Amino acid sequence: MHAAAIVAAAGSGSRLGADRPKALVLLAGRPLVAWAVEGLLVGGVADVVVTVPAIERAAFAAVLPSTVRIVDGGDTRTASVRAGLAALPREADVVLVHDAARPLTPPDVVARVLGALTAGAQAVVPVLPVVDTTILVADDGTIAEAVPRAPLRRVQTPQGFDRGTLAAAYAALPVGTELTDDAAVVRAAGVPVVTVPGDERSAKVTVPHDLTLAELAVTLDGSSGTVAR
Ligand SMILES: Nc1ccn([C@@H]2O[C@H](COP(=O)(O)OP(=O)(O)OP(=O)(O)O)[C@@H](O)[C@H]2O)c(=O)n1
Ligand SMILES: C[C@](O)(CO)[C@H](O)COP(=O)(O)O
C-alpha cells in the first residue's frame, strides 16, 4: 500500500479571525499546517500534497518540508480537494484527506484509518460520539424536537479512501456541488463508508477558543513541536 495525503489548507479561517490564513496561524510557534503535515508523515503517509491560497504559495513553501507538493486550492473545500487529487503522485493507491485545521491529530488515528483501508475498506472516517443533548430548533428558536444522540457521531479527518474510488466519486460530482467532507462525496456515488474511532486531540481549530485549547494541549503534552504526540 502506498499512502498519499491531501491536506486542505486553502481556507481563510473567517471564524478564527486571525491576521493570516488559518493554516499559517502559529500553534506553539509553528503553523497549523506544519503540525498537520508532520502528524501524517509520522503516522505512515509517504507523500503529502497541500492545497493553499494561490497568493500564499511562498509563505507555505517556507514552512513546509521540501518534499511536500504545494498546489493552488479553490474557493471551497470541495474545490481544494479536487485540486489536490490532480496532483497526487502516480504510485499512490490510497489517499488520506486531512484538514490543516486539525494540527494535533495523533498518529494512532492515522494508523487506524490506514488499517481499515488495508483491511479492504473503500472509504474510512474517524468519528467521535456526541456528548450533549441534541435537538432540532424551529424557525422561531424554540425546540421542535429532541434527536436521539446514541447513533450520532462527529466526523473528523483524516478520511481515507481507495484512490480510484475517491477519484471516480469526484469525477462524478458536478463541479459546483459543495459538500462539507469527502465521505459525503463518495457516499453521493453510493460507496459505503466505514467508521473508526477518532480522538478528541484531533479537534478542528475553528474559533479562537479552539486555538487556546490546542496551545494548552501542546503545553500539557510537553511537546516542543517536534512530534511528542
Ligand atoms: N476553500 C477552502 C476552504 C477550506 N479549506 C480547508 O478545509 C479545512 C476545513 O475547513 P474550515 O475549518 O471550515 O476552514 P475555513 O474554511 O478556513 O474556515 P472558515 O469557514 O471559518 O472561514 C481547513 O483546513 C481549510 O483550510 C480549503 O482547503 N479550501
Ligand atoms: C471535513 C470536516 O473536518 C469534517 O468534520 C469539516 O466538515 C470541515 O469543516 P467545515 O466547517 O465543514 O468546512
Detailed description of the structure:
Keywords: Isoprene biosynthesis, Nucleotidyltransferase, Transferase. Its EC number is 2.7.7.60. The record marks 149, 204 as: Positions MEP for the nucleophilic attack. Catalyzes the formation of 4-diphosphocytidyl-2-C-methyl-D-erythritol from CTP and 2-C-methyl-D-erythritol 4-phosphate (MEP). Strand 8 (134-137) and strand 9 form a beta hairpin. Strands 1, 4, 5, 6, 7, 10, 11 and 12 form an 8-stranded mixed β-sheet that branches. Strands 2-3 form a two-stranded antiparallel ribbon. Helix 1 crosses helix 4 and helix 5 crosses helix 6. The chain contains 7 helices and 12 strands. The chain has a single domain, classed as Spore Coat Polysaccharide Biosynthesis Protein SpsA, Chain A, CATH 3.90.550. The chain is globular. It starts with a strand and ends in an 8-residue tail after the last helix. The chain is of the alpha/beta class. Helices cover 31% and strands 23% of the residues. It has helices at 32-43, 57-63, 77-85, 107-118, 163-172, 182-188, 208-221, and strands at 3-8, 26-27, 30-31, 47-52, 69-72, 94-99, 123-129, 134-137, 143-147, 153-155, 159-162, 194-197. 40% of the residues are buried. Bound molecules: cytidine-5'-triphosphate and the ligand C[C@](O)(CO)[C@H](O)COP(=O)(O)O. Ligand LQXTBERG binds at residues 77, 99, 155-157, 180-181, 204. The ligand C[C@](O)(CO)[C@H](O)COP(=O)(O)O is lined by residues 77, 99, 155-157, 180-181, 204.
